[in-house]
Amino acid sequence: MVVGTQAGNPIYLDDVAAVRHMPEDVQQVVTHSTGPAYDGPNKAENEQAVTLSIAKKEKTNGVDVAGAVLAKLEQLKSTALIPSNVHVEITRNYGKTANDKVNELLQAMFEAVLIVSVLCLVGLGMRAAFVVVTVIPVVILLTIWWAMAVSYTIDRVSLFALIFSIGILVDDATVVVENIFRHWLEVGKTSIEQAARAVDEVGNPTIIATITIICALLPMG
Q: Is the separation of the CB atoms in 56 and 35 below 8 Å?
């Protein structure tokens, strides 16, 4: 390559400079170290690495996305896109973490329902406890059905809210059942008319109290 002339003679680039093919100066570098707590087969200490982060789209299930990504990764390992001398390490799997937390919350919810059922059986008797306990699964199933109908995902916050709502459901059902029993004791017999009057007596205040709690917690959503 001619870069100039001197006394009519051309000056080439290799006359004034040494030209070599080499990589561009490194501006950023990523290294990977496994740390002392790592017990896997591929320990690393400041090894050069390439990091890749994959995020799910809005209104998609993170557990399903993580599973699909891992399945695709296993397919790529058997192709030339990922050579055999390149080790792939999963450093963060929020899909697995979310799935574990959801399972813990589901277990906590079932335990809460069981404890409430036993307490209602001891404190209210078989018949009243059956009414109170029936309310819990019915409302929870209706809530999950409505969430699926409007394409809402059930995440950790939603499950925590369901566990929290069990207390409200039991309180409301207990108030109604106790008021029905009070009316029956006053007249000395059971009747549908007295039950309807008892429900009408405490129904509106109970609904208003529940709405008040919902309005107080709504900004947290």
A: no
Whole-angstrom distance, CA of residue 30 vs CA of residue 156: 33
Residue 187 has pLDDT above 70, yes or no: yes
In a domain, 75, yes or no: no
Polymer length in residues for the chain: 221
Q: What are phi and psi of 189, to 5 degrees?
A: -160, 160
pTM above 0.70, yes or no: no
Q: How far is CA 43 from CA 2, 10, 25, 34, 83, in A?
A: 52, 57, 28, 6, 18
Indicate the burial class of 148 (C-beta count within 10 angstroms; 0-12, 13-18, 19 or more). exposed
Residues 6 or more apart whose CB falls under 8 angstroms from that of 163 comprise 105, 108, 109, 112
Running DSSP on this structure, what letter comes out for residue 118?
H
CATH number at residue 171: 1.20.1640.10
